[in-house]
Specification:
By secondary structure, this protein is mainly alpha-helical. The protein has three domains: 6-70, 434 Repressor (Amino-terminal Domain), CATH 1.10.260; 93-251; 269-324 and 335-418, no CATH class. It is built from 14 helices and five strands. The protein has a three-stranded antiparallel beta sheet. Strands 2-3 form a two-stranded antiparallel sheet. Strand 2 and strand 3 form a beta hairpin. The protein is rod-shaped and about 135 Å long. It starts with 5 loop residues before the first helix and ends with a helix.
């Protein structure tokens, strides 16, 4: 059986009469915190206040000091009244909380609307008037406005837990946490949309002449993906833990332990990703410093004009035969297309200039010849090989990122199923 105390009796009488701690304190000229301390049995009212408290609640001082009424029927009635008042108070609180959450949700659509309007303004300026930089600046104004609005909405509708609402603390904590997490999602949307619009301002063509939709879509999605990865890591590792430690959001101990474990895992993955990224960048710098397109181009070199002449004329003859050798005699053209004459060391030769990217002829003072011929086919093959090398180096970044993402997803999935 629960022990009857003055504090619990005062609490029951106050609730039965529909009074708050503040209202009772004002009648007795004491603070609401003092009333709270009475009801928590941390201290008892001063003797000079006993008659006043008894008069307010219509009881005798003897009943107040004993912590119960002399008439059992009156005590039961008082408890019933207190229970009814508590049920009514709980219902009113839930209605108030639901109303605040609904208003917050409705106002959040203003922030979402500002994001959409900013994106539309960027599209009109970039695609309609070819003013990418202007579009980005207008969009940024709307994005900043959306951020400010969402912060204000979150702060305004956040409920504080005071002594009056201590019994509803868990519901208040859950409502505040839901509002903060909803705002975080909107902030992510603002950041990704901002990153999507960034190429029209940072790329020269986009800023001065506007970007065509295909290029904007490609670069914009890439920028948004990078922004999401960076923001996701920062949020999971630092921001979410800060929100929990500063009691801006409340999570139970089991969830908090999972959050801490996830933060450690993601931090470890980010360190590994950064180290591998630095190694790849260093390797790329070393390779590209020592290798160029010309490295992969095979050139023909001659030190004898006669060999050079024979090579050039045989190349033309082979090209001519491949082009017309299978035609019937009646359809073979009478002229020789693309045939051009030139002279070296007093000797004339013919060749096809279309077949060559460059022909460098140099005779040294001692009479020696240095002739370098680069065919168009060899030049194209060199470009292809260099492109393959560049793509291979780029693919290392993609592989590094993909491995880290898979690592994170596998580990988090195991933690959820554990």
């Amino acid at each position: 059986m629960e022990k009857k105390t003055i504090g619990k009796f005062i609490s029951a009488l106050r609730k039965a009469n529909g009074m708050t701690q503040k209202e009772l304190g004002e009648k007795l000229f004491v603070s609401d915190k003092t009333v709270s301390r009475w009801e928590c049995d941390e201290c008892t009212p001063e003797l000079s206040l006993i008659p006043s408290i008894a008069e307010i609640f219509g009881i005798t001082t003897d009943e107040l000091l004993r912590g119960e009424r002399n008439n059992p029927d009156r005590e039961v009635a008082s408890e019933d009244a207190a229970n009814k008042q508590k049920a009514k108070s709980d219902k009113q609180f839930k209605l108030m909380l639901h109303s605040r959450k609904k208003k917050f949700t409705n106002l959040s659509f203003i922030s979402i609307g500002l994001i959409i309007v900013g994106l539309i303004a960027a599209m009109i300026c970039n695609l309609g008037f070819s003013k990418g930089l202007l579009g980005f600046c207008l969009a940024s104004v709307f994005f900043v406005a959306a951020t400010i609005c969402q912060i204000c909405f979150t702060v305004s509708f956040r409920l504080l837990i005071d002594e009056e609402e201590a019994e509803h603390a868990e519901e208040i904590k859950k409502a505040n946490t839901d509002m903060v997490f909803s705002s975080v999602k909107i902030f992510f949307g603002i950041l990704l949309t901002f990153a999507f619009c960034l190429p029209i301002a940072t790329m020269i063509n986009g800023a001065n002449y506007g970007l065509v939709f295909e290029y904007w879509l490609g670069y914009g999605l890439l920028a948004s993906a990078l922004a999401f990865l960076i923001a996701f890591c920062l949020y999971k590792i630092f921001i979410r833990k800060a929100l929990i430690s500063k009691e801006i959001v409340w999570l139970d101990e089991r969830v908090v332990s999972k959050v801490n474990a996830e933060s450690k895992l993601l931090g470890k993955i980010c360190i590994v990703f950064t180290v591998v990224l630095a190694i790849i960048i260093l390797a790329t710098y070393i390779i590209t410093s020592s290798v160029s397109e010309s490295t992969f181009i095979e050139r023909e070199r001659f030190d004898d004009p006669d060999k050079f002449i024979a090579y050039m004329q045989s190349e033309y003859d082979a090209w001519y035969d491949e082009g017309y050798g299978n035609l019937p005699p009646s359809e073979v053209p009478t002229h020789e297309p693309n045939k051009k004459w030139a002279e070296i060391d007093g000797k004339k030769y013919y060749y096809n200039p279309v077949l060559y990217e460059s022909i460098n002829i140099l005779q040294h003072e001692n009479g020696e010849w240095e002739i370098v011929v680069t065919t168009d086919e060899a030049d194209q093959n060199g470009q292809v090989m260099y492109s393959i090398l560049s793509a291979g180096l780029l693919s290392l970044h993609v592989i590094n990122l993909a491995v880290c993402v898979v690592w994170y997803l596998v580990k988090t999935k195991k933690r959820k199923t554990a």
